[in-house]
Write a structure and sequence with these properties.
InterPro entries: AB_hydrolase_fold (IPR029058), Epox_hydrolase-like (IPR000639), Epoxide_hydro_N (IPR010497), Epoxide_hydrolase (IPR016292). The chain has about 350 residues and is α/β, with parallel strands linked by helices. Helices cover about 45% and strands about 10% of the residues. The protein folds into two domains: about 120 residues, no CATH class; about 200 residues, Alpha/Beta hydrolase fold, catalytic domain (Rossmann fold, 3-Layer(aba) Sandwich), CATH 3.40.50.1820. Strands 1-2-3-5-4-6-7-8-9 form a nine-stranded mixed sheet, sandwiched between helices.
């Protein structure tokens, strides 16, 4: 394990600004964001990214958090004077460890925030990037590298799914699991599907029909789209912010949840690490995932408010986990709930950890 400091070379930043200045913008195909990222908004953001954003200030803010590298795994590790087990905070796509920093500031236990394999400064494994493979690497980080006997796991999206695998693979070491997307069972064979469950499943299928184009191309032709995004920072921005806006609880106004400096920080990290393509690997490798066993460790769910999860019934989570200690649907905060509502998550996560011990 070695200390890590983010330090982007000046010539790389100069090249980024030059590329941004030469951006060719498309004409809108529909009104506003109806056909994807709004070209007018993209132009405004790209102009700020090139001329108004202070990367060095952002870099200094990030480097205020102790960061490390271990066997290709990048992570933030904040130690606090606490006798309680630490917590592992795990992000999803198209996010980064930056998503978890506001929550990190509000917790009173040791906190570990890894970058997912293939994201930013973390390398990909040799084999398929499954949820179980991510869980295995995170468990190695927590136990072998950092020496913790027990720990809590928190996450959403990919990180939440990997945390669910942590709970099933290492139930003796995982003290509890807190997720923002209620866990799914391996199947629905145990009992007939209820009307509430069917309504959610139908809404989930309908959502896929209108918002799965990104997933299909990253699952089937990741290198094709990665070639474009790795060469055009404006294209990268359009690809990422489309999902930040669509999935956050922002009522259509992205900057109510992500200010421009945060957006440009996230985009600059993706750009300078050249990792947008490798962040797609878990989509390409998704067919290698196997059904996850039932979760038996204590579980807390703070359900995100995003289509279709506002319809998610607790009964689905009960099918997937046998010991749900806390379940809430606060109706605020979307796919990036820890970033959008850090105090809400800090309060519920802390209460859950205290109740479990």
């Amino acid at each position: 394990m070695e200390l890590f400091t983010i330090s982007v070379a000046a010539d790389l930043l100069d090249d980024l600004r030059a590329r941004l200045a030469r951006t060719r913008f498309t004409a809108p195909s529909a009104s506003g964001w109806d056909a994807g990222t709004d070209p007018a908004y993209l132009r405004s953001l790209v102009t700020y990214w090139a001329n108004g954003f202070d990367w060095r200030a952002a870099e200094a803010r990030l480097n205020a958090y102790p960061q490390f590298l271990d066997r290709g795994q990048h992570f933030v590790h904040v130690r606090r004077d606490s006798s309680r087990p630490p917590v592992l905070l795990t992000h999803g796509w198209p996010s980064s460890f930056v998503e978890m920093l506001p929550l990190t500031d509000l917790l009173d236990v040791d906190v570990v925030v890894p970058s997912l394999p293939g994201f930013l400064y973390s390398t990909l494994p040799d084999g398929p990037l499954t949820r179980a493979a991510i869980a295995e690497s995170f468990h190695m980080l927590m136990t072998e590298t950092l020496g913790y006997d027990r720990y809590f796991a928190f996450g959403g999206d990919i990180g939440g799914a990997a945390s669910g695998w942590l709970a099933t693979m290492y139930p003796q070491e995982v003290a509890g699991l807190h997720v923002i997307h209620g866990p799914f069972p391996a199947d629905f064979d145990a009992s007939p599907i209820t009307a509430e469950e069917q309504a959610f499943l139908d809404a989930d299928e309908e959502r896929d029909e209108s918002d799965s184009g990104y997933s299909w191309i990253m699952s089937t032709r990741p290198d094709t789209i990665a070639a474009a995004l790795a060469d055009s920072p404006a294209g990268l921005a359009a690809w990422v912010i489309d999902k930040l806006r669509a999935w956050s609880d922002c009522s259509g106004d992205l900057e109510t949840r992500f200010d421009r400096d945060t957006l440009c920080t996230m985009l600059t990290l993706y750009w300078t690490t050249e990792s947008i393509g490798s962040s797609f690997r878990q989509y390409l490798d998704y067919p290698h995932n196997t059904p996850r066993p039932r979760i038996t460790v204590p579980v807390a769910v703070t359900q995100s408010s995003e289509p279709p999860f506002e319809l998610f019934p607790r009964s689905i989570a009960d099918r997937a986990a046998s010991d749900i200690r806390h379940y809430s649907a606060p109706r605020r905060g979307g796919h990036f709930l820890a970033f959008e509502e850090p105090q809400l998550i800090a309060d519920q996560l802390s209460a859950f950890m205290r109740s479990v011990g």
